[in-house]
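Please annotate the following for my students:
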Amino acid sequence: MFKIGVIGCGNMGEAIIRGLTKSKTVKSTDIIVSDIDPDKVELMVEKYNVAGTSSNRRVVENSEIIFLAVKPKDFLKTVEPIKDFFTEEKVVISVIAGISIQKIKEVIKSIVIRVMPNTPALIGEGAIAVSFEDIDPIKREEIFHLLKSLGSVVEVDESLMDTVTGLSGSGPAYVFMFIEGLIQGGIKGGLSYKQASELAVQTVLGAAKLVKETGEHPSVLRDKVSSPAGTTIYALHKLEEKGLKDAVISAVEEATKRSKKLSQ
């Protein structure tokens, strides 16, 4: 019997496997994984020393907690053939965007928990939102402990999961684009790619840590950097002129709308 089963070895599936094994929250030998692509399964076995199989049924039958990490369009064709093996004592953690707990419960009998992680979970720095149905408090704490191996965990009402998808689920892509802009700005000014990249990445990392560790509102920290008639206030004026903040808000809104559409 395995402690953890993972169905789907794409980006999110691997992030879960890597986070659990790297943090030693679960022994690698207590994890079994499956995927429609046998090469992905083989890769997970080689990289993380987990058990692998081509059978989703074997994963479900032999695991206490099952992570469903398949694409939304593949949900029914993955689960329907093996639905009878999702018994009531098993816990299913769904990372499938746009598929509600209610829709999953229409197919299987197990306890269902819905989470929305993001790709930084690969390095244990993910932002993970979680929604529970009724669950035993001890089991609830166990799930929190598992998820914390992937990063920071925030409990939200399931009705807000589409917003979470638009904010933190898609959010790393927005940040990557911003970092790319910083790097290109540095290169335009004469820095090498290596120099600009190191400075840009550390600037974003340091700024994020400063917000997290001080607990101050980003606008307060921004004002502390902005000297009267200095370089920063001139730069901020240009960002406002170009609509940076409005563009980011709109991006979150558009991703949220798309998530809602997928859920229908």
